[in-house]
Structure formats: structure tokens, C-alpha cells
From TrEMBL:
<feature type="domain" description="LysM">
    <location>
        <begin position="254"/>
        <end position="301"/>
    </location>
</feature>
<protein>
    <submittedName>
        <fullName>LysM domain-containing protein</fullName>
    </submittedName>
</protein>
<dbReference type="InterPro" id="IPR036779">
    <property type="entry name" value="LysM_dom_sf"/>
</dbReference>
<dbReference type="InterPro" id="IPR018392">
    <property type="entry name" value="LysM"/>
</dbReference>
<dbReference type="Pfam" id="PF01476">
    <property type="entry name" value="LysM"/>
</dbReference>
């Protein structure tokens, strides 16, 4: 449960405060939480507080989970541009000051995996930047998979996801929403996303299987496999979201029946007023050799 306390900002943290540099300590005052605490009524209280740090590189959201308002917290969650990390910490001190202010001191220990379901996006929002983050985390661990043959499939699929994501990024480079894509690129996008989903399923199935192997044969990889499973879940969610959105868009294509005189170049000239877009027609129809089209064939013409 996350409670938004309104439009305010935390005071600026110390210059050396960074989520990427462990063992840093920040002293921050959080305004106006007295009323929020009271909203929960009597009995044990468990809640989250949300605010914004002021940083040169952009806003960093902070969610702090407390249990029964005691001097020990369970977790702290940093979120940068919709990407979230769980952070373990120690030496947590918390007290409510006069006027409803809260003062706490946190010493960060280490960052852990993100929570891929922490954000809710608009239907047209594009997500390759989020998948880029997950891939970066996976690649940081991927070299270790070379140490054991049984993990080769996972390692290979991570590489494939990275490859297909690069293609997705290229397709979406100059647009804001999927609705702006011409049909040929939309079809290509759906193919790339389907391959990402396929390799995500391979990785999730394989990691789940290895984690249940009798006698813990892969116990040395247990934490890494769990770590990878969680990241791939995030990619799977993002790719699935985009694939569903791409398939919900209206069909923007025409059909052409091939005649005796037709070539892909002449068909391209007919519909696009240029010979150069014959490759779009070939891609949409999965044509490898353009000389194989014959009279009577029905071709999809992306518009």
C-alpha cells in the first residue's frame, strides 16, 4: 500500500548520498505524516510513505515501509523513472517530531532485484527502456552461466532477448505510441515481441525446473537463478503488455492479387510511388526470394 502525501519535496539529501554507493547515511525530515498515521486507527500499523528527492539527475521516489512504528524497518524502495530496486539497510532510526514531522536515518547495505509490478502505465506508453534495465541486470549475471552446461539454454536465451530487444528499440526509435507505426513495422514489432516472450518462457521454465532438482544439484546457482527468474518476469510483463497493445490496433493494410506483369518492385511503385519499398512487401508476406511470386498470389500491402 502506497500513500501519496501530496505535492511536496524532501529536503535535498547530502551530496554523497547515492543508491549505487552502499554504506551511505542520509538524514531527512519528512513533513506532515501525523494525519496519515491517524488514518489507520488503533491497532498495529503498517504503511508506506512516498516523497521525492531533489537530485541533479532527476527525481528519485522513496517509499518507506514501517511495521508498527518501531525502530526497525522491513525494506526501503527506491524508484527511478518507473524502475524500482529493493534495498536492504541497517541502523534504521525513526521518530515522530512535534508538528507531525518524521525524522529517520538510514544506512544502505545493498540493492536487490526490482519489483516489476510496482508501476502502472498508460495503454500507449512504450516500454523498451524498462526492458533495457532488466536486460542490463541480466547481463551482469549472465557470464556465470557459462560455468555449467546445464545452464547454457538460459544463457543463450538471455542473449536472444537482448538481440530482439535491440530490434524493438530500433523500430520504436522515432515514435511516441504504437499507433504511429506503419503496418509493416507493426508486424515486425509483433514478431520481435513474440520471440522475446518465447525466450522469457524458456528461461522461466528452465530456472523453475533447476530450482526444484532433487539433492539441490544446482544449489550454487540458487540465488542467481531466483534473481534471473524475477528479472525475466519483468521483461515478460513488458513485452506482453506491448504485444497485446500492438494486436489491438486496427488493421492498416491492403491486399494485392499478383498479375502476369507484376514484380515486387512494380507493386511497390503502384502503392507507394517508389520502387524501393518492395522489401516492406516482402517482409510482410515472409517472401525470401522475390522471384517466387506468381499470378494469383494474394499479397499483403502494408499502409
Amino acid at each position: 500500500m502506497i500513500i501519496k502525501l501530496g505535492d511536496f519535496q524532501f529536503p535535498k539529501p547530502p551530496e554523497d548520498f547515492s543508491i549505487t554507493s552502499p554504506q551511505k547515511t542520509a538524514h531527512i525530515e519528512l513533513p506532515e505524516i501525523e494525519d496519515v498515521i491517524q488514518d489507520f486507527g488503533p491497532g498495529p500499523k503498517q504503511f508506506s510513505l512516498v516523497g521525492i528527492f531533489s537530485k541533479k539527475m532527476g527525481g528519485i521516489g522513496l517509499a518507506l515501509s514501517l511495521d508498527e512504528i518501531k525502530n526497525k524497518g522491513e525494506r526501503i524502495l527506491f524508484s527511478i523513472d518507473r524502475l524500482s530496486w529493493l534495498v536492504h539497510f541497517q541502523n534504521f532510526n525513526f521518530k515522530v517530531l512535534r508538528g507531525g514531522h518524521c525524522q529517520y536515518t538510514i544506512e544502505l547495505i545493498e540493492t536487490k532485484r526490482p519489483e516489476p509490478f510496482i508501476f502502472v502505465r498508460e495503454p500507449d506508453t512504450l516500454g523498451p527502456d524498462i526492458m533495457d534495465f532488466y536486460i542490463a541486470q541480466l547481463k551482469a549475471q549472465a557470464k556465470a552461466f557459462r560455468l555449467h552446461n546445464a545452464l547454457a539454454q538460459i544463457y543463450n536465451s538471455i542473449g536472444k532477448i537482448d538481440e530482439y530487444l535491440a530490434n524493438v528499440r530500433s523500430i520504436l526509435r522515432d515514435i511516441r505510441t504504437l499507433a504511429e507505426l506503419p503496418m509493416n513495422l507493426l508486424n515486425r514489432l509483433k514478431f520481435e515481441l513474440s520471440m522475446i516472450l518465447l525466450h522469457c518462457e524458456i528461461i522461466m521454465a528452465e530456472t523453475k525446473r533447476l530450482l526444484t532438482v532433487p539433492a539441490r544439484t544446482y544449489s550454487a546457482f540458487e540465488s542467481m537463478l531466483s534473481y534471473v527468474y524475477q528479472y525475466v518476469q519483468g521483461i515478460f510483463q513488458e513485452a506482453g503488455f506491448m504485444w497485446t497493445r500492438a494486436n489491438s490496433l486496427p488493421n492498416k493494410e491492403k491486399t494485392h492479387i499478383v498479375t502476369n506483369q507484376d514484380t515486387l518492385q512494380s507493386i511497390s511503385k503502384q502503392y507507394y510511388n517508389t520502387y524501393s519499398r518492395w522489401t516492406d512487401i516482402a517482409y510482410a508476406n515472409k517472401i525470401i526470394d522475390p522471384t517466387t511470386i506468381k499470378p494469383g498470389d494474394s499479397l499483403i500491402i502494408p499502409i
